[in-house]
Amino acid sequence: MLNHQKSLLTALFFFFIFSFSFAQTLTQTVKGKIVDAETGAPLLGANVIVLNTNPARGAITDEDGYFRLEDIPVGRASFQFTYLGYEDFVISEILIGSAKEVELTINLTEALNQLDEVVLVAPTDNINPNNKLATVSARSFSVEETKRFPASVSDPGRMALSFAGVTNSDDTSNEIIIRGNAPNQLLWRIEGIEVPEPNHFSEEGYSPGNVSLISSNMLGKSDFFTGAFPATYGNALSGVFDINLRNGNNEKGEYAFQFGVLGTDLTAEGPFSKNYKGSYLINYRYSTIALLNQITDVTPGSTPTYQDVSMKLNLPLGEKTNLSIWGIGGISDEDEDPEVNGDFSSEEIFKSKTYMTGLTLTHFLKNNDKFEGRISYSGNASDFVFEEQNSVTGDTFGDSDILRNSALRVSLDYTKKINARTTLNTGAIGSFLNYNVLTTETENGQTRYIVREDGNGNMAQAYIQAKHRFNTDFSTTFGLHGTYFSVNKDIAIEPRLGFEWKVGTKHTLSAGLGIHSRRMPLNQYFIRIENNTPNTELDLMQATHYILGHDWRIIKNGHLKVEVYYQNLNKVAIVNDPSLTGSYLNGRFLDEALIDSGKGKNYGLELTFEKFFSRQYYFLATTSLYDTQYRAVDGNWYDSAYNYNYTFNLVGGKEFTVGKKQNNTLGLAAKTLFNGGKRATPINQEIFDQTGEIILDENLRNTIELDSYFRIDASIYYRLNKPKAAHRIALDIQNATNRLNVDNAFFNSNTGQLETSFQLELIPFLNYRLEF
């Protein structure tokens, strides 16, 4: 049966590969909006030119900044955008398919010399962040990138692994380790406001999850920061994932269906009416690993399932005002198959759910100053249940952990463009947080409560920042972020500073400095020890980032970027016991009394060599050399659990235009991940020799370095364009060389010897997508 399934999938794949289209030349509509880069105000009368066409094609924006170009041939096209008194902008190699209209949002920067009618600039890549106050360690990413990178399964978290400074040594997890910091130090934002980690199978603050809660079909152009981020962002220590959801098509109904070994994905979008520019976008996904487990045993002994729904409504309320309403929710569960061990049978169940919803009101004042107000409600829940029974005596045992978190957030943001040189931005955020935890043990129907807690806390944040351009080559950003946390009554003042200096047309020097703070999850503060809560007075953790960068446009459509950084961490929560060396920087829940006198330090060098997509190929090569350590209560320094020391990533791909009318595309891509090994702690050999008990040697915390992590992923895909529909079939292979990377280390209870378990074998992901 399994061989028959594989043969059928293979035949289906090659049917699409060799089914070239013999229809007429296909075209599509390209439309969008051109706005001021600093405020987002629409630009009336801006010009759009389709490059490399004869005769020339173009359009002009209307009073709302919108443009429309019809009958653009499918394939890839480049565009130039111009506006009197603004710098030109060129965007290259935009993918155009036959079934879905292309929608672009273009940000133009006002020129300092208003007397120049045309300001010529070099062709521009599309990785510059949406947030124009970022100077270092920032880039944007698009939905096409999440689909283009092999084995990313359209997950932005997995795609980010190819960026400099980002690591992950787990085949099943999409955790994001930035510059040696724990994954729980990352801030997630959706539509401009903080949200819990948007992943399935996750627990807030401690378990990163396995699959993104957000379908790539919902993504707009979004930002990713790895250090010294602008004053807009607070409650972040390592980085920021700032995700934007795209608007649905407001002129035409469009639909997409995708099916593969991971499940089903459905998307619908369109206008509410012909005479209204509002739109809707909705996506639903259902997945089960059952089909994939028939091909290769990804989750031995269990069959995880998950489903989620996402939506965004874009509702213009006039020429100057817009309202958007969005929501994301998902549930996941994993039931372990019953196990029998001697007289005992046992079963484990894990369930989780995450939800978030919000609205954003945007209003432009008479002078095009921008005001944005946001409100959101979000939360997550996780349930773990373990049950065991003695088949001889009938005795039953069990334990459970139930965790709930919720948050109501309100934010206000105001941007004023004083002139072409100076922009001011200020805002405030209020967060109202709640949680409850219930941990129980059960024996023969009698329940004992181990932890029964609930708590709440409020966080108030405010920020002010400005960007000043001294001339066309040199600019600076400076700002201040303040945070108040009610649980510990702590106040954090966080200055931020950044510089950018363009040296000629090919070199850009940059620098960033910032102090950043972050709270821990509420249950870490309110944990009860001997009927006390000793951790409620812990200060917010703090990190000072120092970054220097050099970006060299070494080739026409690519660049070489170097960054060096140092991070000094203070007020770190550590275990208040001289015999223990635990630190919150190791990314785990600490069920001990803590103090905030811990320290940490991270420093490193990062290189990026990237060729943007042009001439039908691209590549991205990154490497990082770094060290990350922390100081425990005994005053000694230890390697952190995420100190992998080095990482090297290489991803690249090539497309071929095929078919009689050159309407279709065959693509090949590959990716290599190479990291230093995970860390482990040896046992106390003296205690084991005397008692046979496995006790870790706290004085040698994280001194064992396991084997390096190495993985090659590959993909092949085919896009078939038809007049009324577009088809895409893709085969992604994770771990194409079938290398068994180390998963975890443990010690044999009989011999005391270190043993290891291994991660996943080769995994194929085959999926088919239809757009119409």
Task: List the SSEs and their pairings.
Layout: H1 2-18, E1 27-36, E2 47-50, E3 57-60, E4 66-73, E5 75-82, E6 89-96, E7 102-108, E8 138-141, H2 143-148, H3 156-159, E9 166-167, E10 177-178, E11 186-190, E12 193-194, E13 199-200, E14 211-212, E15 222-225, E16 239-243, E17 254-260, E18 263-273, E19 276-288, H4 290-295, E20 305-316, E21 321-335, E22 339-341, E23 344-364, E24 370-390, E25 396-417, E26 422-443, E27 446-469, E28 474-485, E29 490-503, E30 507-518, H5 522-525, E31 541-555, E32 558-575, E33 594-614, E34 617-631, E35 637-639, E36 646-658, E37 664-675, E38 679-680, H6 685-691, E39 704-705, E40 709-721, E41 726-734, E42 742-747, E43 754-758, E44 763-771
Parallel strand pairs: 1-7, 11-16
Antiparallel strand pairs: 1-4, 2-3, 2-5, 5-6, 8-15, 9-10, 11-12, 13-14, 15-16, 17-18, 17-44, 18-19, 19-20, 20-21, 21-23, 22-23, 23-24, 24-25, 25-26, 26-27, 27-28, 28-29, 29-30, 30-31, 31-32, 32-33, 33-34, 34-35, 34-36, 36-37, 37-40, 38-39, 40-41, 41-44, 42-43
GO cellular component, one term: cell outer membrane
Domain FHA: 527-590
Subcellular location: Cell outer membrane
Q: Brief description of this entry?
A:
This protein is mainly β and 772 residues long.
The residue fraction in helices comes out at under 10%
Annotation, overall tally of beta strands: 44
Query: Poorly predicted ranges (pLDDT <50, ≥5 residues)?
Result: 15-23, 116-123
Shape: globular
Structural category: mainly beta
The CATH architecture designation of the domain at 242-771 is Beta Barrel
User: Strand count, sense and closure of the main sheet?
Assistant: 22 strands, antiparallel, barrel
Strand content: over 45%
Give me the CATH superfamily of the domain at 242-771: TonB-dependent receptor, beta-barrel domain
Mean of pLDDT: 91
Total helical segments: 6
Distance between the termini: 33 Å
Any idea of the CATH class of the domain at 242-771? Mainly Beta
Within the CATH hierarchy, at the fold level, what is the topology of the domain at 242-771? Maltoporin, Chain A
Over all CA atoms, what is the radius of gyration?
Answer: 27 Å
